Amino acid sequence: MSKTTTTNHLKNVFGVTCIGIAAAAIGVKGHFSGTIPGGDLMYLIQVISVIVLGFSWHSSQKYSGISWWRFAVMIVCCLAAGANVGTWIQAAFEEMGICQGSGWSAIPDQDWLGSFFSLSGKGANCSGNAGTQLVWQALGLTSVLYSSFAFAGFLAHKKGIKFFWMASLLTCAFWILSFSYWFTRMGWTSHESFDLIYIRGGLVVFVLKTCFDVQGIIEKSESGDRDVVSHSLTMVLNFLNLFIRVITLLAKMAANGKKKKR
Question: pTM, whole model, 2 decimals?
């Protein structure tokens, strides 16, 4: 495949990625207004969306551009993911005292199907716009990290440096992150270990995964796989996973700073 075709595919992927991030932002807004719940229900919708996109992958090869019904499924997934990001932002605000709540818990805002009806219309109980600065700081830092490592993956591929040796390491890392999440949720490990492994370790994992995925998208495009929707969703989820970890760390730094002043 020509370099021009690959470059055009990357442009399409990152263009649709921006749309997906905007949809996630709407999901965050919906969570704070009480329109969309977070937690397990939204996670279930994400899983179903990913399964639908996975089973329809072969049909996507029939399109020279974007399959619009698959694009719609991706937007639904991004909205759900954004609502879950809203739970992390709310937990960060609670840590800083901006929102009312129980403070930072290991797993924020876990609700199930029945909770949808009690959450609907209530929204987050937050005061003022004190958290706006934190969100913009986290968004700026996440954008810099994401762009830098995405460009690093592109540049490395151009120079013939392959990151595919990281596949096994990333697989192991995701298993560790998953165990950390569920063990903490079940009360088998401490919040400190969750913070170290899932938050801080996860930040490292997802910046490396961003490099890896950019190279993977280029390789797939050169071999004829131009599934813009699936490739874009991968990059959107990378960005959101970076964001929740960055805002968590910034909130903890701010909260610790307030404690020291006292």
Answer: 0.88
